[in-house]
From TrEMBL:
Gene3D superfamilies: 5' to 3' exonuclease, C-terminal subdomain, 5'-nuclease. This is 5'-3' exonuclease. Keywords: DNA-binding, Exonuclease, Hydrolase, Nuclease. It comes from Albidiferax ferrireducens (strain ATCC BAA-621 / DSM 15236 / T118). InterPro entries: 5-3_exonucl_a-hlix_arch_N, 5-3_exonuclease, 5-3_exonuclease_C_sf, DNA_polI_H3TH, FEN, HhH2, PIN-like_dom_sf.
Amino acid sequence: MSLLIIDALNIIRRIHEAIAEPDSEEKVADTIKSSLGSFKRALKTHRPTHAVAVFDHGGRTWKHDLYDGYQANRKPMPQPLRDGLLTLKRELHDMGLHWIAIEGIEADDAIAALVEKWCKYSAKQAIILSTDKDFLQLLNDQVCIYDHFKEVWRDSAYVQEKFGVTPSQMGDLLALMGDAVDGVPGVDKVGRKTAATLLRINGNLDRLISNADKVGGQVGANLRKGIEIARLSRQLVSFKTDRPLGLTWKMLAQVRIPTPPSHTMADSSP
């Protein structure tokens, strides 16, 4: 038994951007066809007993209310592609692959909520299909992340090699270094390597803030000046997991993949 959670727009946007031609109905059609192919390949590769595709709902979320600059410079989805998502969602329905988009929260929040609820429901594996580095903070012995495009697992060894911290420190690292794509400010002039060094010494962001007066040089000055920004950024890279998702595990077990029938799970609400 396992749960596959597909970060749908992470897959779709990357496929769309990789098609080297101007936006057009033909490009959208190619994107939808390739995306569906990727979804089907993921199901065949991982053969989950439960699966769901998670989309952003669009519009403002709690993070926009927290910080006006959040995602302010993100390029909006082209309207033809947005229209094409309706076709893709109908195809997913025909595959038996349930999809959700929850108003007021991001897909990231819904995915984190699904992971949290699954880990309470089952001791079996939860797989997140995404290249989004924010999910690295969810990694543990039960929760896995798979890069669908490179066909590799993103595990704790990857996090250590790439970022110099443990998965449990990733949220603090992202808060310190910021994220220009999402408009997370971070601490001025504190990059990935500096942030990793500070966290290796102090363990976590709260302890680092408590010890800010002991950090020397310009880094220490920037840190002390940016304490409130660091706290704000930590909220912006966190997940809101208390929103109802409107799902049951039985819904997510209806996906059709070429596997022998498994026994039916008792229905309960995530």
